[in-house]
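Hello,

Our lab assistant flagged a job as stuck in the queue for most of the afternoon. It eventually completed. Since we weren't sure the result was trustworthy after the delay, we are filing this so someone can double-check. Below is the sequence as submitted and the structure that was eventually returned. Let us know if re-running is recommended.
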Amino acid sequence: MTNVICVLRHAVSHMRRLYRDERGSMATMMGLMAIPLIFAVGAGVDYGTANASKAKLDALADTAALSAVDHQAITGTVAAAQTTALNTFNAEITNLPSVTVTNVTATVTDSTTGRTAVVSYTATKTNTFMGLFGYPTLAIGGSSTAQAGLTTNINFYLLLDNSPSMNIAATTAGINTMVANTQAQGGCAFACHESDPAADNLGNPGGVDNYKLAQNLGVVTRMQNLAAATQALMSSASSMEGSNQQYQVAIYTFNNSSNLSTIQALTSNLSTAQTAAANIDVLEVYSNNWLTRNNNNNDTDTNFESAMSAINGIMPNPGLGTPNSTPQEVLFIVTDGVDDEVSSSCSQALDGNRCQQPFNTTWCTTVKNRGIQIAVLYTAYLPLPTNSWYNNWIAPFQSQISPNMESCASPGMFFSVTTDGDITAAMQTLFQQAVAAARLTQ
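-- returned structure --
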C-alpha cells in the first residue's frame, strides 16, 4: 500500500512538472507573439508622427516657394529669390522636434510667361519605438512649386461689416473703460451710434450716445481701426503696383439693408480710394431697436446674405489678369461673423422672426464657383459672459463663428484678429497673399 501511495505521489508530482512546463511554454509563446504586436503599434505611432512632420515641412516648402514669387521678390533677381526661399524655409525648420533636414534646394527660373520656383527637401524623423528594433529614423521628403506672372491685373472689392457690433472697443483696456463708464446700462463695451440717445436713457454724461462717449473717453473702436487699416492698405497697394496701375479697388460697407453703401466705386486711383476710406464708419441708428424714427427693425442690423447677393451682382466674371485679358477679381470681406436679420428659416429664432446665427456661407460658394477668390478677415466676436443676451443667443454658437468664416474664404485666404490684434497688419497680410498672383502646384 505504501508503495502504491508513493507511486501515485510521484505521478502527481511529474504531472505538476509537466503542467508547469506547459505554462512556461505558453508564456514564452505569448511573449514571442507580443513582439510583432508591439512593433506594429510602435511603427504606427512613428509613421503617424512622420506624416505629421512631413505635412509641416510641406507647408514650409509651400511658403518658401511662394516667397520667391511674391510681388516683392519677383522684382528682384533669380539668385536673390532663391536665397529668399532658402532663408524662409530654414528659418522655421528649427521649430520641428526630432526632425533633421538633410538637404533643401530652391530652383527659380524666369521666362517670358513669368517665374517658377521649386523648393525641395529631404529629411529624417527620429523614431520613438522603431529605434528599439533597429530602425532609428524614417526618411521623408517633398517639394512645392509656385508660379507667378510678372504682371497681374486684379480688381479688389472690399466688403466691410459696419453693423453696431463691429464698433466694440478695440483693446482690452478700451473695453474695460467703456464698461466702467456705462454702469447705468449694465456695462456696455460697444460704442453704438444713435441719433436719439435720449430715447434709451443711457445715463451717459451730457446725454450723449456711446459713440460720442467713446470719443470723449479717448477709446478707439474696432471701426476706427478698420478705417485706418483700409487707408493704410490703399497706400501700400499703391507702392506695390508701381507705375502700371495693375490694381483697382472698390470699397463697400454693409449692415441691415439689401443695398450696399458705396464708400468708393471701382477705381484705379488708389489715392482717391485712400481718401474715401476715411469715411468708413459704424451704422448710425435712431435708438435701441429702431433703425429710423419710423422703422422699428428690432436691431436686425447685419444681413450677410443680402450683402453677398448685392456684391455678387456688382463683380464681373474674372479673367486671367494678364495685360491683354480681363482682370482677376478678389472679394475682401471684413466682419465679426454674426448675422442678425429677419428670417423665417433660422436655427435659433429669437422674438418674432429675428435671427442671430453664424453667416450662411452659401453665397461664398456661389462667388468662388465663378472663379473669384475670397479673402476673409475675421474680427473675432468678443465673448461677453457677463451679458445675458450674449449667454442666451450668441454663446451657443460662438465656437462655430470662426470655422464658418474660414470655410467662406478661399484656401490660404483667411485671417483672424482678436481684441488687441493688429487689423492693419492682418489686412496687409491678406492683400499680399492675394496679389502674389501665385498658384501652388503639386
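-- support follow-up --
The delay was a queue issue, not a problem with the job. The result is valid. The longest helix spans residues 2-67. The first strand starts at residue 99 and ends at 111.
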